[in-house]
């Protein structure tokens, strides 16, 4: 079911009428696109003395850096959100929009719901400009009720009550980022295979890495006093669990899960269909995967998050790892048969993913021994034989990079092995699983000592 803004506002007002106390605890914070609040616009955050302070442009503000606006506008990848609208004016975007026949990309809700802060016209205050792209309030929430007091030390709780989005909480953050980087059932936050076919790039995402890349704030003593800082390994693991949960939600949803008589192709591994056809024995590429008993010649559900989560849970919660293993197999098998068995299996797996997220959020993932065990599991021979598909290798590489950074592992040999693994998985069309496995095995030998 597609959820549109009016439904949500109605739902919230009904719940408020029933009981204000229960909704505060039972309802997750609405994501900024759906918060119903006035969005005051990037210029209202970016003034001197606030987050666009020229004088302390080096990030030396007493509490927050006060240079967040300049960081958000960085010409590097970190500043991508500030250019998300401009991207819609490029020949690439025009081509996509033409192929889809939706008119100008920069006017189409199908694009703006992810490439800008596309709240309703009534929610746009005087200084709001859609051309600011993914602005501050697209993540931090409409500032209507907190703009005036959040800077005079009202306290984080008060700000959150007034509609500031809890971006520091990894679970809330995942729900926010996934809307645009994986998809949601809100309005038009979904890139289906038709949009991909029209030329949209494949979406890839890993919560911990992407949080780090776009980081525009300073984590210092007073930040730690104000907020709980989740360890990177926890952010990584919960991102895998919630990524699986979100994917299955969208797959189970009739609006997003199907496309005519076909299942929606975007949930399948792109390169199980898009690859060169082999002409002889030498370049035959199919190989079995120990996590699923699907033979050759079938499209495969994209199970990259599942594969990573299985590894994480073998360390964090072995009982849940077993449930993931058997239900993962069932889902793959059921994908060959379809029908109600497929639905039941997807629903069960989704609820296991939710349990896994809860388990991860209560585990101690700041413990170096646990992080090391996670890394060793990711690069183990048993696990790397599951990286038959490019999407899984891509996630494994993200994990190796983030977990070795969390352990502050360094050295030319390790760098060299990680580079070898990156080269083996550089291009989806030339992914070499044997070379990838060999590089991970090198890493395993180095950290296993
Ligand atoms: C579900 C959210 C979502 C929707 C809907 C969406 N996009 Fe995107 N788009 C993204 C994300 C995220 C990226 C960045 C992909 C990456 O690099 O991982 C992106 C990247 C792009 C790029 C490449 C940008 C570059 O820097 O090379 C273009 C062009 C683009 N989108 C155009 C469009 C158009 C046109 C539409 C509407 C038909 C659209 N997008 C709809 C999320 C979305
Ligand atoms: C893509 C989402 C996103 C966008 C866009 C974004 N932020 Fe953030 N911001 C975050 C996340 C995630 C954090 C880190 C977690 C936290 O402290 O809440 C953060 C942290 C911050 C902090 C640190 C708060 C503290 O307690 O020290 C400030 C200040 C901030 N952002 C201001 C801005 C401003 C100003 C803009 C616009 C120019 C902006 N952000 C745009 C996601 C975003
Ligand atoms: C409203 C939609 C939206 C939200 C919410 C959002 N992003 Fe993005 N993000 C985009 C789009 C669109 C792009 C691509 C823009 C471009 O190509 O310039 C992007 C690009 C990025 C990039 C640059 C790398 C790349 O692939 O282009 C990073 C890193 C990133 N986002 C991280 C995050 C994180 C972390 C969160 C959650 C805190 C988040 N984003 C939330 C829409 C969003
Ligand atoms: C079940 C098989 C299947 C899967 C899985 C699949 N596709 Fe496709 N794809 C197709 C078919 C069929 C076409 C249409 C080919 C045609 O029009 O000639 C297509 C067309 C495309 C095109 C247009 C190619 C062109 O240049 O004409 C792109 C781009 C594309 N897909 C991207 C993706 C991405 C990204 C994914 C993964 C998220 C994906 N596909 C998953 C079968 C698949």
Automatic annotation (TrEMBL):
<dbReference type="InterPro" id="IPR051829">
    <property type="entry name" value="Multiheme_Cytochr_ET"/>
</dbReference>
<feature type="signal peptide">
    <location>
        <begin position="1"/>
        <end position="26"/>
    </location>
</feature>
<dbReference type="InterPro" id="IPR023155">
    <property type="entry name" value="Cyt_c-552/4"/>
</dbReference>
<dbReference type="InterPro" id="IPR036280">
    <property type="entry name" value="Multihaem_cyt_sf"/>
</dbReference>
<protein>
    <submittedName>
        <fullName>Multiheme c-type cytochrome</fullName>
    </submittedName>
</protein>
<dbReference type="Pfam" id="PF13435">
    <property type="entry name" value="Cytochrome_C554"/>
</dbReference>
<keyword id="KW-0732">Signal</keyword>
<feature type="domain" description="Cytochrome c-552/4">
    <location>
        <begin position="77"/>
        <end position="141"/>
    </location>
</feature>
């Amino acid at each position: 079911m597609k959820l549109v803004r009016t439904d949500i506002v109605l739902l919230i007002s009904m719940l408020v009428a029933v009981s204000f106390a229960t909704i505060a605890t039972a309802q997750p914070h609405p994501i900024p696109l759906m918060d119903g609040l006035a969005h005051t616009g990037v210029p209202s955050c970016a003034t001197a003395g606030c987050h666009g302070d020229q004088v302390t442009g080096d990030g030396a503000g007493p509490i927050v850096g006060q240079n967040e606006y300049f960081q958000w506008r960085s010409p590097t990848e970190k500043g991508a959100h500030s250019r998300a609208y401009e991207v819609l004016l490029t020949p690439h975007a025009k081509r996509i929009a033409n192929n889809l026949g939706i008119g100008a990309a920069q006017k189409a809700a199908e694009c703006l719901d992810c490439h800008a802060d596309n709240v309703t016209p009534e929610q746009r205050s005087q200084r709001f400009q859609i051309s600011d792209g993914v602005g501050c309030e697209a993540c931090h929430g409409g500032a209507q009720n907190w703009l005036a007091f959040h800077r005079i030390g009202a306290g984080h709780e008060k700000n959150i009550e007034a509609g500031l989005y809890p971006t520091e909480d990894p679970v809330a953050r995942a729900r926010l980022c996934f809307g645009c980087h994986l998809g949601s059932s809100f309005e038009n936050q979904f890139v289906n295979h038709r949009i991909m076919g029209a030329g949209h790039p494949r979406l890839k995402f890993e919560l911990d890495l992407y949080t780090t890349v776009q980081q525009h704030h300073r984590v210092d003593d007073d930040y730690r006093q104000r907020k709980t800082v989740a360890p990177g390994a926890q952010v990584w693991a919960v991102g895998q669990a919630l990524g699986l949960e979100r994917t299955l939600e969208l797959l189970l949803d009739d609006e997003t899960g199907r496309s005519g008589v076909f299942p929606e192709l975007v949930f399948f591994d792109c390169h199980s269909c898009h690859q060169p056809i082999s002409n002889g024995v030498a370049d035959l590429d199919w190989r079995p995967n120990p996590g699923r008993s699907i033979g050759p010649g079938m499209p495969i559900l994209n199970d990259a998050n599942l594969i990573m989560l299985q590894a994480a849970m073998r360390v964090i919660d072995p009982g849940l790892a077993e449930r993931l293993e058997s239900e993962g197999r069932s889902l793959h098998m059921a994908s060959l048969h379809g029908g109600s068995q497929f639905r039941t299996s997807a629903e069960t797996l989704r609820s296991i993913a939710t349990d896994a997220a809860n388990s991860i959020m209560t585990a101690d993932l700041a413990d170096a021994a646990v992080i090391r065990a996670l890394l060793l599991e990711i690069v183990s021979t048993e696990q790397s034989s599951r990286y038959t598909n490019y999407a899984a290798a891509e996630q494994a590489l993200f994990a190796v990079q983030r977990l070795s950074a969390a352990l502050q592992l360094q050295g030319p040999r390790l760098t060299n092995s990680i580079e070898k693994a990156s080269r083996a998985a550089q291009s989806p069309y030339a992914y070499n699983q044997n070379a990838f496995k060999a590089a991970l095995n090198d890493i395993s030998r180095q950290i296993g000592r």
